[in-house]
Amino acid sequence: MAPDPPVLRLRVELLGVASVNVTAEKTEPAEILLEIARKALRRPGQEALRNLTLIAPSGLHVRGSCSLARLGLQDGDVLVAVTCRVPEVCHADKTFAAVALDGSVLIWGEGSSTDRSYSEVSDKIRRGVQHIFATERAFAALKVDGSVVTWGAAEWGGNSEAVQDRLQSGIQHVYATSSAFAAVSLAGSVVTWGDASHGGNCSQVKEQLQSEVHNLCSTASAFAAVKFDGSVVTWGDAVDGGNCQKVREELQRGVRHISSTKSAFAAVASDGAVVTWGNARNGGNSSLVQDFLHGGMKQICSTMAAFAALRQDGSVVTWGSAVWGGDSSAAADYLQGDVLHIYASERAFAALKLDGSVVTWGAPEWGGDSEAVQDQLRSGIHHIYNTSSAFAAVSNTGSVVTWGDASHGGNCSQVKERLQSDVRHICSSSRAFVAFKSDGSVVAWGDEVTVAHQLRAVGISGS
């Protein structure tokens, strides 16, 4: 078995200011990477940026004692650094939750009819919250002291009483399917709760999850754990990835990282090859492109039903649901090389190239068609953000270009003048974008209700 490289090579971008390459051990805590980034971005004669926030591709803030591997960071990832207030926001159904700067939790929105009310646990999350995670109808807050607090619909993971004694301390990270949670402790053990059929019950593989779990990945109804020795443990719905028996032999070579669609997994083995399993139509069968997946993978990105693999040579390979991004033939001429990074909405992909141009494919109304703004995407793009069905690209000068579902952020015409320059970061939910400018101002667009929610998360009452 080829050894898994212990060091992550990452790029940190302080948009409009600097971009630096850094390295960090996979097992190091997030707070170490944050300090490395602060020092690397420091200008001559200046002190390190003490108010820096580092944001992972998943949207999670890089902070605390959780290891970089358990945060889901991969070799080659691009992280965004910001020096302004940026909330960490997630949602369950139509209820939103955000971690405020003081470590308290803000919660608002519709659809909060739950079996375990927020009021029952509100005192426990007034301070010390580090991250919030969500299933479709429940939340789990991970606190600085390593404890976990849950609320929401009981059958969706909102009630963790059965395992509460194991959630009092020592938890490093929490993962979710659509209706179950899995928490990984500092020692590498796993605790699960919620819908048993969707990963909330790991009793059949319990012995394999007692220690040495490196990180987890999830589909909508199954979990896959990568252990420190490179072995893989799966549980949950068998059809949607909870059973990897058919590829067990291929996984014996050792696994570095796993990505997922809503019902399939794709693992990067220690030799760089890709192994897939789960729902065949949604990415679980990569046989048609297997000749291109034998090694040299830099990144694997996914929509809800398709994968896109970025190879070390800058070319892109896709598979899964054709209409959700699995067929990139229309853009194939632009994906043969020089691709820097891939981004995804629920049903479309956007590839950022070395020359600053952007290539899109997948469902047109979900951002797969960028023809209307193609002139603005030919060069100079620095970073791309997404909602569930739209994209927003930030240029080197801090201007913003949007496309995709207008109601979910694909149309920024009402705030266009305020997005012409100096945008440093964009925070997104499933339905709206919030841009943070260098002067400290905030601009939001997309679904009107969601916009109001996100502005509230940063302490602003109007748009």
TrEMBL record:
<dbReference type="InterPro" id="IPR009091">
    <property type="entry name" value="RCC1/BLIP-II"/>
</dbReference>
<dbReference type="InterPro" id="IPR051553">
    <property type="entry name" value="Ran_GTPase-activating"/>
</dbReference>
<protein>
    <recommendedName>
        <fullName>Ubiquitin-like domain-containing protein</fullName>
    </recommendedName>
</protein>
